[in-house]
Write a structure and sequence with these properties.
This protein is α/β, with parallel strands linked by helices. The chain is built from 5 helices and 10 strands; from the N terminus they run E-E-H-E-H-H-E-E-H-E-H-E-E-E-E. The strands form 2 sheets. The chain has an 8-stranded mixed β-sheet with strand order 5-4-3-6-1-7-10-9. A two-stranded antiparallel sheet has the order 2-8. Strand 9 (about 160-170) and strand 10 (about 175-185) form a beta hairpin. About 20% of the residues are buried.
Length: about 200
């Protein structure tokens, strides 16, 4: 059984981007970029929708031999779209016109490598809602983009319980949080009790 990871870069208030803001919210974080570079050896298949494919393949064409995009070019990519047509020009890209949930559910049983989303809010939302996501990872940038935020990540998601399995901080204040998600039927029984809310001893 192969795994599926959803991976996002977000502002603290849950936006994927903001109007007028540059990529990575204009933050220069050598620590984070070094960590990203260390991930390029992971044998993933990338999953994306048509919008992300058009954006990323366009970037790849512009930057030429950039190492990060060279890695993306060499990595298998599955693109879910009813509007794109074969052949897809970006190397190692496979077009899938069938339902993303059906395809990924079958691929988890038969694929030879784990799967990892790239952008693609609607693809991620569909996979989360179908209970097909094994890991949910976000890197939170230290900004609130209440006035300019675009692409709200979590709208349309089911209620989820998140078990923290990895965390890391990158200067200047980026937080990586990786969870195992579980779809909830309702609020957790008894709520969440932290040290400050535990009942006092009667002794």
């Amino acid at each position: 059984m192969q795994s599926v990871m959803v991976d996002f870069i977000i502002s603290l208030d849950g936006y994927a981007s903001a109007k007028g803001w540059p990529g990575l919210w204009g933050v220069d974080s050598p620590e984070y970029l070094a960590w990203l570079g260390s991930q390029t050896g992971d044998p993933y298949t990338y999953l994306m929708g048509a919008t992300t494919y058009r954006l990323m393949s366009g970037f790849a064409e512009q930057v030429g031999d950039d190492p990060g995009f060279a890695h993306l070019a060499a990595t298998p990519k599955v693109v879910f779209s009813s509007s794109l047509e074969e052949p897809l020009p970006w190397t190692n890209s496979q077009l899938v016109a069938t339902d993303v949930v059906d395809w990924v559910r079958a691929a988890k049983e038969t694929a030879d490598r784990p799967m990892h989303t790239l952008g693609s809010l609607s693809v991620c939302r569909a996979l989360i809602s179908a209970g097909l996501v094994d890991r949910f990872r976000v890197v939170i940038f230290p900004f609130i983009t209440g006035a300019t935020g675009q692409e709200r990540i979590f709208d349309g998601y089911p209620d989820l319980g998140l078990e923290l399995v990895e965390h890391q901080t990158f200067a200047p204040g980026l937080q990586l949080l990786e969870y195992v998600p579980t779809i909830l039927d309702g609020p957790p029984a008894g709520g969440i009790t932290g040290p400050e809310t535990q009942p006092e001893s009667s002794s």
